[in-house]
Amino acid sequence: MTKKRTSHAKRNTQKSQKPSWFWFLAGLISGMFIMFLVQLNGFKSQDITEKLPEATKKISKPIENIKDDVSEPVFEFYDRLKEQQVEVPEYQAPTEAEISKAATHEYFLQVASFRKESDADKLRAKLILMNMDAVIETSKLKSGEARYRVVVGPYRNKSKLAKARQTLVDNRLDYLTLKREIKK
Fold first, then answer.
1. What are the pLDDT digits (tens) for 156-175?
2. Choosing a second label site near 109 at 20 to 30 A (CA), which of 87, 163, 175, 184?
3. Which of 170, 152, 150 is nearest to 161 (CA)?
4. What's the rounded Cα separation, in Å, for the pair 22 and 16?
5. How many angstroms separate the Cα of 119 from the Cα of each of 114, 132, 172?
6. Distance of alpha carbon 15 from alpha carbon 166, whole angstroms
7. CA-CA distances (angstroms) from residue 127 to 106, 135, 157?
8. CA 170 distance to own-chain centroid
């Protein structure tokens, strides 16, 4: 028995292409449409430019009259400045005592906190050698344990506070800024 071969459906090997005259005609039509739009825009701008001389003729007459009336500008402020005198009261900068009296807060820099007083004393000595006002404050925790804080200050002047901060940073020491009310 011989098997009969079944033929598969023939594939359409030809691509459905549009003829070249179609593409030529499509390009020609689109080009004509673009030219129509350009011409339409040209007519609008041409109408505006034709009307422009009429409008400028109407405006130019008053402008000519104005030009005759205008004179050279006169600058009087040079003379006025010479004539006027301004009295400036003398300013006296407040003294440090006046600034400290007006201050309501003072600032401290906490450099460290230790469990042992000997460690706090070593850091205090190091800070004193850096020409800083360092003190040791003792505080009690709830557990009854004592902590020894090394504090620099007080500073009532912000510029001195900034200088102290910079000194600590230069010596690679961290700090915590504390703000306390002045007791009067």
1. 888 888 888 888 888 888 88
2. 184
3. 152
4. 13
5. 7, 18, 17
6. 82
7. 20, 9, 20
8. 29
